[in-house]
Amino acid sequence: MTLPHPADADNPAAVYRDSLSRGSYWAVHHSLQTVAGLLGSEDPWSYPWHELRYRDTARIRARLVESYAPATVNKVLSALRGVLKTCWRLGLVDSETYARAADVSNVRARVLPAGQGLGCEQVEKLLATCVADPSPAGRRDAAIFAVLYGGGLRRAELCGLDLEDFGKDGCRLTIRSGKGRQDRRIFLHEDSCQLIRTWIATRGESGGPLFCPVSAAGTLRLTRLRGEAVRFILQKRQRQAGLDGLTPHDFRRAFVSRLLDAGVDVFTVQKLAGHADAKTTARYDRRGDAARRAAAASLTLY
Question: Are 149 and 123 spatial neighbours (Cβ–Cβ below 8 Å)?
Fold first, then answer.
């Protein structure tokens, strides 16, 4: 993936964004574009961020609340605070000015969790469409779904995998520089590993990205797959499978829910998912009312 180079690479927004991992880069990139738009600017990479004061950031927060869901508001505010802190680190503002401008609170709200549950039946239908496709794309897509469902990877993490990150003997994946620049290792079920091996047999043993683009003619190009391509792959396969409304992140939600449903403690699941906070892991739980009823039934009085 080619990263854009702003005209003013010394601008605090560019400095902050470029300091982040690839997984966070684009989220912050788009968040700062949103803030710049609210400030009446088309170019966040040349905006004078050091001139912002509390009255400005409070107004930005209010306008965000009017137009976006709480989670999106908080994500954008986090990016804004990151730029303000970079202004302070670059010596463009003093400590008091930074502290006042950054003193905008997150939005607290209880909303229904995003996304939907993804069950074994849906995964089987998706895999069936891939198996029915004799082209290299069919084998690649089956392996992608196996990694997303069996390992709970983020899109950026999946696209960042190299061939050497797959341990053929131990049936494991090494995720390097995940969100927050955290490396981790996960182990996969043999069924998932077999689909990956089948894809590698088609891909070849040359070094480079584990997953790569495949042309309509079935030609492989050993360049890194983009995150948007993963979304398009899922859209194509779910149409073929008669499904609708699934997103790549639903695989990750299903991964967490299945582990919790199997009795794995939340802190272990947190490590497997690469979450910095167990509260984040809990928000991925899609087990529904059945799990809560079972928990209540276990609290017997006698």
Answer: yes
